[in-house]
């Protein structure tokens, strides 16, 4: 059994040595991820895990990769993408230029879903999609745009449920169990590390998507991230969160109006 | 178990179920004391449907306030919380929920084991965990953790379960405190209130 105090010591090491601050992550989820890694890598004691994290920078990379959750999919919650397609993109399309930020994008499935929507609306050419995550190794996967082929059947179903009318397989080339997404989808994607815990606003956006990322933060850190999004959104810009996340308890809420059913808010002032 | 042992000992009841568990809940819920003062946390395997109709349906069966969990919702006595589809539901030390979309466990998200284990860590001996009908292995490992943390574990009587495999698996592998049918489950939960 791993004690909470041991977790504190480990997280403190990670912060002091490497600068990654996990103190305000949701503790229940983080603890479960650490226990999982401890079992996965068969450490004889917690002290050994701590020593390895302290002394091996390569292992720190694995540690960050494993304790952060990098499960994502294309067109997750098709009804959400349907609203983007039918209500948000037509509004953004009236602008000369569209800037979108995927904060905490992980391996990029949602970024490519957005690129497909923009391409179908004939808006991709005047758009820029910023894809950021704290974890450099997941961003490598965004750069490659290669996903497991066995996921594509489900993605295709979600794509259709989101209002897509094309043959989804025209968006990728299958090869050795992998699906490589078309290069033209990547052309407008800008990839960079960005940590919502410690980094600041870096641009002004028309749409910020941060779905199922805030669930890993405690309320204080959620508030910090939401303020950061607020500073990074132009007036009449949109903020999209995960289906179980909310602005309800945030100080920024007063300036935002939620669209009907989906977790999309419009900045009103 | 003597009635005196249970008075004020328990803060939360986590109920886990899979195939065949809904009919049990439809019997248990109407029989619950409307002034219950423990929290009930419900984790059910179900296919993602994109709406919250199951919590609406369950709320018609009880006068206790029933809601599907949103991230960071506080856990209040006398409330019933339903784990949302396609998320794991975890419990923080400050008695609130955190959601998680990490890998499926036992082919399931929500996984019963994840919530049982997390609830055991927070509630320790003040937790009751109940495993209902189902046809897979989920729940047994979680009940074991609940028991090790000093909590109380219950399995549905397999002969009353539409899918006896899941509670039977727990009974075969663990020292279950009580094996109950649906009427006895509602009686037990109401007794926590005395």
Write the layout of secondary structure elements.
The complex is a heterodimer of chains A (269) and B (194).
Chain A: H1 4-18, H2 27-40, H3 46-55, H4 57-67, H5 78-92, E1 98-103, H6 109-120, E2 127-133, H7 136-144, E3 146-148, H8 152-161, E4 172-175, E5 178-181, H9 183-186, E6 189-193, E7 205-210, H10 219-232, E8 233-241, E9 256-258, E10 264-267
Parallel strand pairs in A: 1-2, 1-7, 2-6, 7-8
Antiparallel strand pairs in A: 3-5, 4-5, 8-10, 9-10
Chain B: H1 3-6, E1 12-17, H2 22-28, E2 39-44, H3 53-59, E3 66-68, E4 80-82, E5 88-91, E6 97-100, H4 112-123, E7 127-131, H5 140-148, E8 152-156, H6 165-173, E9 178-180, H7 182-191
Parallel strand pairs in B: 1-2, 1-7, 2-4, 3-4, 7-8, 8-9
Antiparallel strand pairs in B: 5-6
Please report the number of helical segments of chain B.
7
By oligomeric state, this entry counts as heterodimer
Shape of chain B: globular
Order of helices and strands of chain B: HEHEHEEEEHEHEHEH
What's the arrangement of strands in the largest beta sheet of chain B? 3-4-2-1-7-8-9
- Largest sheet, spatial ordering of strands of chain A: 6-2-1-7-8-10-9
Q: State the secondary-structure class of chain B.
A: alpha/beta
Query: What portion of residues of chain A is helical?
Result: 40-55%
Profile the largest sheet of chain B. 7 strands, parallel
In CATH, what is the homologous superfamily of chain B? Methylesterase CheB, C-terminal domain
Number of E-type strands of chain B: 9
The CATH topology of the largest domain in chain A turns out to be Rossmann fold
In terms of DSSP E residues, the strand content of chain A is 15-25%
Give the name of the CATH architecture of the largest domain in chain A: 3-Layer(aba) Sandwich
State the largest interface.
A-B, 27 and 22 residues
CATH superfamily of the largest domain in chain A: Vaccinia Virus protein VP39
Note the gap between the termini of chain B. 14 Å
Supply the number of structural domains of chain B. 1
């Amino acid at each position: 059994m791993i004690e909470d105090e041991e977790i504190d010591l480990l997280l403190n090491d990670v912060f002091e040595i490497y600068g990654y601050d996990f103190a305000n992550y949701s503790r229940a989820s983080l603890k479960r991820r650490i226990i999982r890694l401890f079992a996965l890598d068969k450490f004889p004691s917690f002290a050994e895990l701590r020593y390895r994290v302290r002394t091996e920078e390569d292992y720190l990379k694995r540690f960050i990769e494993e304790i952060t959750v990098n499960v994502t999919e294309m067109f997750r919650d098709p009804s959400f993408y349907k609203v983007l397609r039918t209500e948000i993109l037509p509004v953004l399309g009236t602008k000369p230029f569209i800037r979108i930020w995927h904060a905490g994008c992980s391996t990029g499935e949602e970024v490519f879903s957005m690129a497909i929507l923009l391409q179908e609306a004939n808006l991709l050419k005047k758009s820029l999609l910023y894809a950021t995550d704290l974890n450099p190794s997941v961003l490598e996967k965004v750069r490659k745009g290669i996903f497991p082929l066995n996921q594509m059947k489900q993605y295709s179903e979600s794509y259709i449920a989101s209002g897509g009318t094309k043959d989804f397989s025209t968006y990728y080339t299958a090869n050795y169990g992998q699906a490589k997404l078309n290069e033209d989808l990547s052309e407008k994607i800008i990839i960079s590390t960005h940590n919502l815990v410690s980094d600041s606003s870096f641009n002004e956006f028309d749409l910020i998507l941060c779905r199922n990322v805030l669930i890993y933060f405690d309320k204080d850190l959620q508030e910090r991230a939401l303020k950061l999004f607020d500073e990074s959104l132009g007036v009449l810009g949109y903020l999209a969160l995960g289906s179980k996340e909310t602005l309800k308890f945030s100080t920024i809420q007063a300036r935002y109006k939620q669209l009907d059913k989906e977790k999309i808010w419009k900045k009103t002032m | 178990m003597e009635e005196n042992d249970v008075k004020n000992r328990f803060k939360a009841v986590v109920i886990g179920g899979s195939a065949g568990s809904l009919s049990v809940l439809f019997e248990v819920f109407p029989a619950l004391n409307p002034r219950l003062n423990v929290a009930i946390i419900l984790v059910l395997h179900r296919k993602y449907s994109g709406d919250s109709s199951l919590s609406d349906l369950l709320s018609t069966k009880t006068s206790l306030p029933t809601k599907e969990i949103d991230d960071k919702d506080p856990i209040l006595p006398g409330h019933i919380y339903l784990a949302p589809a396609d998320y794991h539901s975890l419990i923080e030390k400050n008695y609130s929920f955190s959601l998680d979309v990490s890998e499926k466990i036992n082919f399931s998200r929500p996984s019963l084991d994840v919530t049982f284990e997390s609830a055991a860590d927070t509630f320790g001996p003040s937790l009751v965990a109940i495993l209902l009908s189902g046809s897979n292995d989920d729940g047994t490992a979680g009940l074991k953790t609940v028991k090790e943390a000093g909590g109380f574990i219950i399995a549905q009587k397999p002969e009353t379960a539409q899918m006896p495999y899941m509670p039977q698996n727990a009974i075969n592998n663990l020292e279950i405190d009580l094996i109950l049918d649906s009427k006895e489950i509602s009686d037990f939960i109401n007794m926590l209130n005395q």
